[in-house]
């Protein structure tokens, strides 16, 4: 699943905000009990792994000119929640990028 979020910031500023606030991603999962691990394999990609309630979801955040793309690999058993997850990523991702 790909969720693009437009922005009008310089890429360096987007990277800075993501690095400074990536620890907050776990709070976006209902209940706020998610364990989130992030890793930057290069300056425009943040890999993430989210574990909550016995389930794990991996994905990445791609920093591009004019947009940030959240890519999430939902397991087949959770595919029915894709529209809800995409909406939450869109809403919370915008808030994450907006933080200074």
Shape: globular
From the N-terminal CA to the C-terminal CA, the straight-line distance is 27 Å
Mean pLDDT: 88
**CATH topology title:** TATA-Binding Protein
The secondary-structure element order is EHEEEEH
* Total count of helical runs of at least 4 residues: 2
CATH class: Alpha Beta
Radius of gyration: 13 Å
CATH-defined architecture? 2-Layer Sandwich
Structural class: alpha+beta
As for the number of domains, it is: 1
Number of strands: 5
Q: Largest sheet, if any?
A: 5 strands, antiparallel
What share of the residues lie within helices? Answer: 25-40%
InterPro entries: PHA_gran_rgn (IPR013433)
Organism: Qipengyuania mesophila
Pfam family, one: PHA_gran_rgn
Protein name: Polyhydroxyalkanoic acid system family protein
Overview of this structure, please?
The chain is α+β, with helices and mostly antiparallel strands and 100 residues long. It has one domain (2-98): Kinase associated domain 1, KA1 (TATA-Binding Protein, 2-Layer Sandwich). It is built from two helices and five strands; from the N terminus they run E-H-E-E-E-E-H. The chain has a five-stranded antiparallel beta sheet with strand order 1-5-4-3-2, with helices on one face. A hairpin with a 2-residue loop joins strand 3 (45-52) and strand 4. The protein is globular, with a radius of gyration of 13 Å. It starts with a strand and ends with a helix.
């Amino acid at each position: 699943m790909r969720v693009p979020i437009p922005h009008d910031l310089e890429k360096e500023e987007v990277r800075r905000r993501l690095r400074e606030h990536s620890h907050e991603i776990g709070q976006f999962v209902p209940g706020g009990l998610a364990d989130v691990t992030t890793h930057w394999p290069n300056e425009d990609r943040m890999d993430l792994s989210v574990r909550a309630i016995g389930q794990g979801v991996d994905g990445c955040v791609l920093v591009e000119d004019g947009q940030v793309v959240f890519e999430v690999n939902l397991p087949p058993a959770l595919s029915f929640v894709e529209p809800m997850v995409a909406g939450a990523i869109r809403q919370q991702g915008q808030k994450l990028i907006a933080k200074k």
